[in-house]
Amino acid sequence: MENSWFSLMKEWYVSLGAGEWATFALSITVAAVAFAAAALLYSWVKKQPLENKKIEEICGYIAKGSSVFLNREYGVLAKFAGVAALIIALFLPAPIWTQGRGFWLENIVMALAYLCGTAFSAFAGKIGIAVATKANGRTAAAAQKGIGPAFLCGFRGGAVMGMAVVGASLLGVALVFWLTGDASALLGFSFGASSLALFAKAGGGIFTKTADVAADLTGKVELGIPEDDPRNPAVIADNVGDNVGDVAGMGADLFDSNVASMAAALVMGSLLGGKNVVTVFVYAALGLLASIIGVATARMGKRSNPTSALNYSTYVTTALFAALTAGANLLFGFSWRIWGASTVGLLVGTVIGIASDYFTDDRRMPVRKTAEASETGPAFTILSGVSYAFLSTLPSLVGIGVSALASYYICAPMGEGYPLFGIAMSAVGMLSIVGMIISNDAYGPIVDNAHGLAEMGGLGEDTLEITDSLDSAGNTVKAVTKGFAIGAAGLTVIALLGAFLAEVNEKAAAMGLGIHIDGFDVMNPNVFFGMLVGAAVPAVFSAMLMLGVNRNAMRMVDEIRRQFKEIIGLREGAAQPEYDKCIDIATSGAIRELIPAGLMTIVVTVLVGVIGGVESIGGFLTGNIVSGLLLALFMSNAGGLWDNSKKYVEAGHNGGKGSPAHKAAVIGDTVGDPFKDTAGPALNTQITVVSLVSSLLSGLFLTLSIFS
Amino acid sequence: MENSWFSLMKEWYVSLGAGEWATFALSITVAAVAFAAAALLYSWVKKQPLENKKIEEICGYIAKGSSVFLNREYGVLAKFAGVAALIIALFLPAPIWTQGRGFWLENIVMALAYLCGTAFSAFAGKIGIAVATKANGRTAAAAQKGIGPAFLCGFRGGAVMGMAVVGASLLGVALVFWLTGDASALLGFSFGASSLALFAKAGGGIFTKTADVAADLTGKVELGIPEDDPRNPAVIADNVGDNVGDVAGMGADLFDSNVASMAAALVMGSLLGGKNVVTVFVYAALGLLASIIGVATARMGKRSNPTSALNYSTYVTTALFAALTAGANLLFGFSWRIWGASTVGLLVGTVIGIASDYFTDDRRMPVRKTAEASETGPAFTILSGVSYAFLSTLPSLVGIGVSALASYYICAPMGEGYPLFGIAMSAVGMLSIVGMIISNDAYGPIVDNAHGLAEMGGLGEDTLEITDSLDSAGNTVKAVTKGFAIGAAGLTVIALLGAFLAEVNEKAAAMGLGIHIDGFDVMNPNVFFGMLVGAAVPAVFSAMLMLGVNRNAMRMVDEIRRQFKEIIGLREGAAQPEYDKCIDIATSGAIRELIPAGLMTIVVTVLVGVIGGVESIGGFLTGNIVSGLLLALFMSNAGGLWDNSKKYVEAGHNGGKGSPAHKAAVIGDTVGDPFKDTAGPALNTQITVVSLVSSLLSGLFLTLSIFS
Predict the structure, then answer these.
(1) What is the DSSP string of A404-463?
(2) For a designed S-S bond to B140, which of A519, A673, B435, B450 qualifies (C-beta 3.0 to 4.6 A apart)?
C-alpha cells in the first residue's frame, strides 16, 4: 500500500522544514516540562502534612462541593459544546454541502478543534481545583510552623494551576496548528476555550457571589455569627465559590486570552510567511520557560513579606523573558522589530498592573480617601469609589492605546500586514508571563481558604495572623493580575479584529464576491450603528449577571433561614447544617442565570451581522471592545478599592471596626463584590467570545445581510 | 462714494436669492414671535398674585442668590471667553499673519461669532432665571386656589425659558449665517454656546448638588429638622441650586445642542447647495412655531393630571411639526427624503423618551424591584439600580444607531454628501420640538421650589398636596426630557463628526497639503489610540465633577455647623441664618471645581491631536461619543430610578417612611443625585465641546502632529 498511515505521517514530517519541525518539537517539549513541573509541585503539595481532623473534614466538603459544581457545569457545557460542534461541522468554515469531496474534512477538523479547546481548558481547570482544595488546608497547617513554609505551600499550589494552564494552551495550539497546517482551525480551538471560559468565569462568578452575599446577609447581619462560622449552611459554598470563581474561572479566562492572542498572531503570521510562525511559538515557549524558572525560584526570605516575594518572582520572570527572547533573536535571526513589539506589550502590561495597584492599594490616596468619605455615610463611600474607579480607567486605556500605536509603528517598516502582526505580538508579549500571573492569582483563593480553615479549625491567634497577612498579599496581587488580564484581553481583541478582517477578505475572495474590505470607517453608518449596539452589550451583560447574583442569593437566603428554623440544635452548634443544599442552589442558580446572558451576546452579534453585514460587525466589535474595557476596568477597580477600604477601616482607621465608617465601608464592599468577582472579569471573556463568533460567522454575514 | 454702507447693504441684499431672503426673514420673524410670546408669558406670570409676605421674602432671597451665582459665573466665563476669543482671532480659521489683506476679517468674524454664542445663551439663561424665581412663589400661591391655576403658572413660567432659548438660537444662527455668508463661522457661534453650556451645566450641577447634599447631611441627618426648614443656612442655596442647575443649566445645554445640530446641518447643507440651507431654516422655524402653539394650548382639564397635560402638549407639538413640515414640503418642493430623515429623528427621540420613562417610572418594574431590593439593605439598592441603569442604555443606543442608519440610507440615493446631511437633519428633527422640551423641563424646578415655598410659608396640607403632585409630574417628565437631550446630543455629534471631516478636507485642500481623508478606519492605530483615550475622557470628567461636589459639600457642612454653633437662637428659630455665606461657598466652589474638569477635556483633545493628528482626533471623537452616551444614559437613568424608588417607598410601599427599606432608598437617592444632576447631563456638553474644539483646531492638527 502506497498510502499507508506510516507513509502519510512520513510525508507530513518531510513537508515540515527543519526549523518548523524543531519549533513543533520545542513547543511540545516545553509544554511537557510545564506538565512535569505541575506534577512535581502537585505531589509536593500533597506530601505536606495535614493533621487537624476538623480541617481535613472541612477540606473534604470544599473539595467535594467544588467538584460537584465543576461536574454540573461541565455537564451543561458538554451539551452546549455538542450542539456548537455540530453547527460548526455543518456550516464552518463553509456549509458542508458546498465543500468538495474530501474538503468536508475541514469542517470536521474545525469542530474537533473546537471540542479540543473546551477539553484542554476544562482539564487545566480540573487540575487547578484539585490542587487548590488540597493546598488550602495544608497552607493553614503550615502556617503553624511560620509564614515562610505557609507561603511556599500556597504559592506552589497556585503554581500547579499556572503550569497546567499554560502547558495545555501551548500544547493545544501547537497540535492544532501543526497537525492541521491551517491557522484558521485555531479560531475553532480558541472559540472552544472561550466557550469554556464564559461558563467558568461567569458561572463561577455568579456561584461565588451568591454564596458570599447569602452567607454575609444571614450570618453576619441576621444571626450575628462570625464570617467563617461552620454553623452557617452557606459557609462551605462560600469557600467552594473562591475556588470555582477565582481558581477555575480566572484560569479559564487567561487560558482563553493566551490561546486567542496566539491564534490571532498565527493567523496573521502564517499569511505573512517567513519566520513569523516560528517566532510566535518560540516566544510563547520561552515565556512559559521563564515562568517555570520564576516559579521554581520563588521563596520568601527571612526579612521579606509575601507581597514582595510574589512581585519579585514576577519581575524575575519578566526580565528572563526579555533576555531569553533577545538571545533567541541573536541565535535564530528573528526580527528585532517583532521583539520590540512584544517587549512594548510586556512593559505596558506592567504599567497597567501598577496603575491598578495604585487605585486599590491601601497605602495610596484613593483607598484612604474612600475610607475617609465613609465617615460621612455609605452614599459617600459609593460616590468616592465610583469616582476613583472612573479615574482609574484612564492609565490603562491610554496604555493599551499606546501599546497598539507603538507596536504598529515599530513593525510598519517591515511591509504590508506587519503592523497588525506587531499588535498581535504585543499581546503575545503581554501574555508571555501568564504562567506566573496565574500562579500568583490562584495563590489568592488558596490562602483565603486557608485563613477560613484556620479559623474554623481553631489554630490560634498566631496562625491566624500569618494566614491573614498571606491573604492581604493575595488581595493586592489580585488587583494587579486583574488589570493585567484586562489589558491583555484588550490587545488580543484588537489583534482579533485584524484576524476578523483577514478572515472576511479571505472568504470574500474564496466565494468570488468581488468585495475587498480595507477597514471599518466610523463614518459608515453601518459601522456606527454596530458600534453603538456593541457598546451597550457589555453593560447589558454585566446587568444580567448582577441581577442573576441578586436573585440567586435571595434563594439561598431563604434556604438558610429554613435550615435555622427546621434543624434543631443548629444555632447552638449541636447539629450540622446541610451544606450540600446551599451548594446545590448556588450551582443550579449559577447555570440558570448564566445561560441567558451568554445567549444574549451571541444572538445580538448574529442580529447585528444580519442587519448591517460585516461592516456593522466591525463596528460592533469596536464598540464592544471600547465599552467592555471601560466597564471591566471600572468595575474591577471599584470592587478592589472598596474591599481594601473596608480592610483599611477594619485595621483601626477612621473609627475602626464597628464604627459608622465601618458600616458604610462594608456596604461599599458588598456592592463591589459582584462588580469585581462577577461582572467585571467576565467582560474579558464576553469580548473574546463575541470576536470569535464574528470571525467564525463572517461567511454568513458576507452573504446574508439586509443593509449592505 | 461708490462703496457707501448703504450701497454695500443693497449689494448684500441683492446677492441673496428671493427664496434665501424669504428664509432669512422667516427665521427672524419666527424668532421675534417667540420673543413676543416669552414677553407675554413673562408679564402674565408677573401679574399673578403673591400675597404671603413670608413667601415673598424667601423668593427674594432665592432670586438674589440665583443672580449672585449667575453674575459670578458669567464674570468668570467672560474672562475665559475673552481669552478664547483672542486665541480664535489670532489663529482661526487660519493664523492671522497667513491671511491675505482683508481676509484677517475672517478671524475677527469667527471671534465675534464665538462671543455672540456665549452672549445669546447667557441672555436666555438670565431670562429663564428671572421668570423662574418669580413663578415659583406665584405657583405656590396659585396652588391655594387649585391644581389647574397652579399648573398653568408653573408651566407658563417654564415656557418663558423655552421660548427665549429657542428664539435666541434661531435668531443667532440666522444672523451669523446670513450676515457672514459662511457656514463655518457657525462653528464659532456653536463653540461659544458650548463654552457657556459647559459652565452653566457643570457649574450649576456642582452648585445644586453641593447645596442639596450639605443641606440634607446637616439638616435631616445631624439636626433632625425637615427638608425645607428655613432655619437651615443651606436651604436657600438648595433652592437656588434648582434654578441655576435645572433652569439655566438645562436651557444652556439644549441651546447648545440645538445650535450645534443646526450648525452641522448648515455646514454640510451649504456645501451641497440647492434648497438644503433653506430647508434647515424652514424646519427649524416650523419646529419653533409648533412649540409656540403647543405652549399656548397647554391647559389642565378638569379630570386630567399634570403629567398627562405635559405629555399631551408634547404630542400636539410633535404632530404639528410633522404636519407643518409636510405642508412646507408640498409648498416649496423640498425633498421628501430629507423630511423622512427628520421625521425618523423625531420618532426615535420619542422612543428614547419612552425608554427612559420605563426605567424611571414608579409604575414600572425597575423602580419597584429596586424598592424591593432596598428591604435587603442599601448595597442591594445600589446593585439593583446600577443593573437596571446598565440595561436602560440599550434601547437608547440602539435607537440612536437606528436613526443614524435609517436617515443615512433614506438620503443616500440623493447623491454624495447627502447621507451625512440626512443624519444631521435627523438631529434637527429630533431637536425641532426643543422649545416644548425646555418648557417642560423648566417647569420641574419651578414647581419643586413652589413645594418648598408652600412648606416654608405654611400654606397648609391641601396646598402642599397640590404642589407635591405637580412636583411628581415634574420628576417623571424630567427623566423623559433628559433621555431626549442625550439622544439629540448623540445624533448631533455624529453630524459634527461629519462636519469635522468636511472641515479637515476643506482645510487640507486650502493649505495644498494634498491629503484627502475619506473616513476614520478603526484598523488604523492612530484612530484606535484616539478612540481608547476618547472613551476614558467622559469617565474622568464625571469623576472630577463628582469629587468636586464631595469636596464642596464638605466645606458647606463645616459652615453650617459653624453657624449653628455661633449664631445664638438659630436652632430655636429666633435668629436668622446667614444664607448668603452658603450661597457664596456653593458659588466659588462650583467655579473652582469646574475649571480643571473643563480644561482637562480641552488639553487632552489637543494632546491627542498633536500626537496622532486628525485621524487620532476622529477616533477620539468616536470613543468620546460612544462612552459619553453610555455613561450619560447610565448615570441619568440610575439617578432618576433611585429618586423615584425613594419616593415609591415614601408613598408607603416596602415598609414606608422610616423603615430600613426607606433608609436604604435614601442612600440610593443620595448616590443618584450627583449622577443625574451633575455628571450625567454635563456629559452632553462635554461631548459637544470636544467635537467643536476639534473642528476648530483641525488646521493645527493637520500641520502639527507626531505620528501621522
Answers:
(1) HHHHHHHHGGG-TTHHHHHHHHHHHHHTTTHHHHHHHHHHHHHHHHHHHHHHHTT--HHH
(2) B450
